[in-house]
């Protein structure tokens, strides 16, 4: 079966699909992953065909305010829609659509008659269990949570209005608004698999049929991969260190964050590894090492804790390794995942990025590393995650759609 996965966003929005795609390929399917040019090496390293999507979130303004985020998202979606159909070559038997690409992919599926399946990394359907994950809000109570969830979907529909109108015109489809399209998909119980663990977010009981939580799709990495020699030397030279990473967040803030990180580590009496990331963290010393990208699955089990921005992928990777976290959420869905880690006891209360200081970080690190309850909770989450088989569930869902 020829399967096309379409995903767009930052690295954390793409990497899980390389692992999913590789699993589908091992099961005998021909798999392509359509995403933006920056992630072509990730796609090809997983043994998948790469197809280019015409947008790049990294060139946006990068602001963290609500208005800036909405402006950047609308521009990104409009650009994405302008060339979306070009990446979808003829001959595809099944479309797997991320939350970002589904509002565009639905129209392509309609035009070509191609079956489609949602493969989401965040819960987007309204529920009384929690408010919309992208708002960063705390629970408003069940009725208000559901109302806020419906409002968030309406706001998302607005982001896609121009892109959808242009795409349907190009595909020679009659006009149909994003909101009307979404309602049509919901009435049809369009299937969506959610690639996160029930250890963090159990499936809400008030979700409609067709919405399932299957566990994480883990980013592909070479099983023979080894850590860099200098990192191995550092790990062996003393007690387990703490990793500090902000992933694709905090561009241009590296000098300030590096100073905070080093001061906090030394105040807490801990060794540390800084992952440069988009912020370009950097520091040198006998007790601190700076590195670039390394597979989380290889490094995380050898750490005392991970300080991170609470992106969905990093949050899951730390829990999978049985390692407690100190979360410093920046924007979007990060406060949601940070609170979920705290709720299961695998992290203390989040430190909002705007409130981050060396003292607050040192205090949180000292508490997290030295109180064994956090490590026990993380280990419990890891055992739960080990029972989940997201790729297997996906293959069964594909079989139900007629994909063998």
From TrEMBL:
Keywords: Transferase. The keyword Transferase applies. Residues 3-67 form the Glycosyltransferase family 28 N-terminal domain. Residues 280-388 form the Erythromycin biosynthesis protein CIII-like C-terminal domain. The keyword Transferase applies. It comes from the Bacteria. Coiled coil: none annotated. This is Glycosyltransferase. The lineage of its organism: Bacteria, Bacillati, Actinomycetota, Actinomycetes, Kitasatosporales.
